[in-house]
Amino acid sequence: MAIMMPEADQAVLARRDGIVAALRAIVPGEGVIDSAAEMLPYESDGLMAYRQPPMVVVLPETTRQVSEVLKYCHEQGIKVVPRGSGTSLSGGALPLADGVLLGLGKFKRIRDIDFDNRVVVTEPGVTNLAISQAVAHAGFYYAPDPSSQIACSIGGNVAENSGGVHCLKYGMTTNNVLGCEIVLMTGEVLRIGGKCAENAGYDLMGLITGSEGLLGVVTEVTVRILQKPETARALMVGFAEVEAAGECVARIIGAGIIPGGMEMMDKPAIHAAEAFVHAGYPLDVEALLIIELDGPGVEVDELIGRVEAIANGCGSTTCRISTSEAERNLFWAGRKAAFPAVGRISPDYLCMDGTIPRGALPKALARIRELSEKYQLGCANVFHAGDGNLHPLILYDANKPGEMERAEAFGADILRCCVELGGVLTGEHGVGIEKRDLMPEMFTEIDLNQQQRVKCAFDARGLLNPGKVFPTLHRCAELGRMHVHGGKLAFPDLPRF
């Protein structure tokens, strides 16, 4: 493992047999996995470059069991790593050698479908796509749709604030989640938000969504569902230059048009996706835009004409407009299968996740090309063009000495570039361990300390998912300590509480 994790507590490891026995008493039957062979599937998440077997895996089925497991671990000083479906691409669910891996895979029930309030109450182990399938018969769907939606769980979506191809118009997870049930490290169960769009007090849902398992374990989620639009059609537009495609994106948004989705792929990604899905992508272009417009039929027809004119004005070389639902889905099938498609042309790849202002897209892509030459590694680019969320796929072979290290350095430089261009380190995959040590590129020490104070309010002993997000994790007592120099307090005129 090339990345440092918290040192294992040997005293905890020495008590492993007793810990396993205590956990079996809380979660009986097949709820505890402790053999090395059976724990292998849990040694990594979607970021498979880093692996670490857990001390023990626990698979509770009820909120009460989650509460009792966390309470026991809190009292015994045992670290806990929550895990959903394990599709995280930032190492957020990477286990700890001295920690309990708490899997929520058995929380697979949809508890309530409320069409009157247009919400679904679901357990966290339900897949993203399953929510849409459960309400499709009534003409509703759940808007966020990450490419892994067939496998990723809604609890993991909340942890990472996942997006998807339709997040430009309909928002990320945080814009579509109204409430949750969350269990703190102490075992206390809280209910936050609910079926109403607005709730009294602080916006704790906004805090929990995207908190990467550092604040609590989500055991129930209330999500907003939407009526399916009357019409949805997609354009597939090719460009001879990536910069022209970037200009087209900017002009469409500048014209006041907000597509349901707007995605871009560069030539390596286009070729990989076409060979995998056979979606009819043009192979003689440098960049491909997939632009979906939805709403009333008359409005969609009007917007398609306007978008086509904008694309022609930017020098598009090809333009194909879907004429059926099957064709629209085929356009998207190639984009949604881009990650596994690239897996067919490279033994390994790292999927990055930086976000930039839309106007900086040409500069970012030019910089990625320069870095590709510098590190002598290929790179396929797939990204949410509308909101500037880049997903460069760095191609490497872990069996070749030094290639993984070069891929890591390449990825770090891409993320630094995103920050330099006015963007951020992550758009939807989270920080996890992948971007943890780059946090100082974006935040000052004061910023990071303030963020850690929020964690301390929820998890004072720092037992929940330690080693993630923060490059240096301070003890909560250290963060609250007042600095005294020369026997004098700083700013003595300020009131002290």
TrEMBL record:
<keyword id="KW-0560">Oxidoreductase</keyword>
<dbReference type="InterPro" id="IPR016166">
    <property type="entry name" value="FAD-bd_PCMH"/>
</dbReference>
<dbReference type="InterPro" id="IPR004113">
    <property type="entry name" value="FAD-bd_oxidored_4_C"/>
</dbReference>
<dbReference type="InterPro" id="IPR036318">
    <property type="entry name" value="FAD-bd_PCMH-like_sf"/>
</dbReference>
<dbReference type="InterPro" id="IPR006094">
    <property type="entry name" value="Oxid_FAD_bind_N"/>
</dbReference>
<dbReference type="InterPro" id="IPR016171">
    <property type="entry name" value="Vanillyl_alc_oxidase_C-sub2"/>
</dbReference>
<feature type="domain" description="FAD-binding PCMH-type">
    <location>
        <begin position="50"/>
        <end position="228"/>
    </location>
</feature>
<keyword id="KW-0285">Flavoprotein</keyword>
<dbReference type="Pfam" id="PF02913">
    <property type="entry name" value="FAD-oxidase_C"/>
</dbReference>
<keyword id="KW-0274">FAD</keyword>
<dbReference type="InterPro" id="IPR016164">
    <property type="entry name" value="FAD-linked_Oxase-like_C"/>
</dbReference>
<protein>
    <submittedName>
        <fullName>FAD-binding protein</fullName>
    </submittedName>
</protein>
<dbReference type="InterPro" id="IPR051914">
    <property type="entry name" value="FAD-linked_OxidoTrans_Type4"/>
</dbReference>
<dbReference type="Pfam" id="PF01565">
    <property type="entry name" value="FAD_binding_4"/>
</dbReference>
<dbReference type="InterPro" id="IPR016169">
    <property type="entry name" value="FAD-bd_PCMH_sub2"/>
</dbReference>
